[in-house]
Amino acid sequence: MRALRLEVAAYDARVMSPEQIAAKREHGGALPEQQGSERETRRVERRFRRPRRADYAAMIESNAGVLTSLLLVCATAFFVAEKTGWRLFTYFPPLLFIYMTPVALSNTGVIPGSSPVYDEIRAFGLPMMLVLLLIKVDVGTAVRVMGKGVFVMLFGTLGVVVGAPIAYLVVGHGLGPDGWKAFGSLAGSWIGGTGNLAGVSEMIGTEGTEFGLAVLADNLVYIVWLPIMLGSKNLAGWFGRFTGVSDDRLAKMEQAVESMERDTTPPRTHQYHYMLFVAVGVTWLANAAAEALPVIDPFVSTGTWRILLVTTFGVALSFTPVRKLPGSHEFAMALVYLYVARMGATASLAGEDFGSQAGWFVLGAFIWIFIHGAFCLLGARIFRVDVHTAAIASAANIGGAASAPIVAAHHKEILVPVSILMALIGYAVGNYAAYLAAVLCQLVA
Asked: Domain-by-domain residue ranges, the chain?
């Protein structure tokens, strides 16, 4: 208790004037305006009593042990999802468990809250992942097959960018000072996918509570939005009359899909070397260039330049033969989930006000998603597309490459391959557009 009193006194000295300290002592430990607020007093005392993670040694501290733990979490989540076939994973994807499990492990002292492993995953794993995702972008084929459907998806992207500051204005008073970062990170997920969630989080410095809010809202909204996208198939007749779609549009799309080239060849040993060379080389170039570019406080940091450069280089390489490297998307997704596990491990629950912000943020996310939906409807009307295309376009934004094929298979199974191509376009524009959404939220904060 003596240590506690000393710490409280030190805290008072930092944040209070001498007159306030004297008044607090005169009134038995509380300022006059605080008397009667016992709940607030207990909250402050609990804050000081709560042990900090750094005060304890973790059970697993070696670099190899920490990395093994993160990989085990990722592998276990997917193993259970695949072997059990539980419907739970349809609505709560492995991503949620991959994030929450390290949160629990690091906050209970099993693994550390800080480690060189986390730093290396952030420095190398994240940019490598972005490069390997983006080299698979095939804008030409997506436009040739889906036609105006690509523009509907981009309208949905615009809805995410515009909806972010609107939703933030509604619920921002219930969030912390860095609440805009949670909106920016979630915009990354809703425009491209989990890879963009990670990339934008690095660009704007999203950590701890804000990253957790983004993951929570992403999954809760997904539970509601996915059934809406699946059920929209039953509205095909009404939707077609609403948009004025031509009768032969679906037939033309199916013909275009059948003419697509599909390469299912597994990667060979030397192709893994090619992938690593490209991913590491781009990471090195982007890091070097980012260090030389100016910091524009508070909007553009060195980390922002780094991710923007990686994104630009990756998209540029997608127009070269590098795009034909097999297995790069799967390799990239493995790195994505490892990065998410890393974010969970670095999230501290000590002193966080997560619970009081979660309700407001989720409310904002639902306001936001329906703004996105309105933009998708507007785009479908302008470009005269069918309900199947509009649903896939929205899923390519909100769920990325993981959800777009699910919606496509339910609507028109033949459209599954092109739904992935649309999601990859989301990867390409996600970091740019989501960063813009984050900046807009920061400006209205």
From this structure: 2-49, 85-444
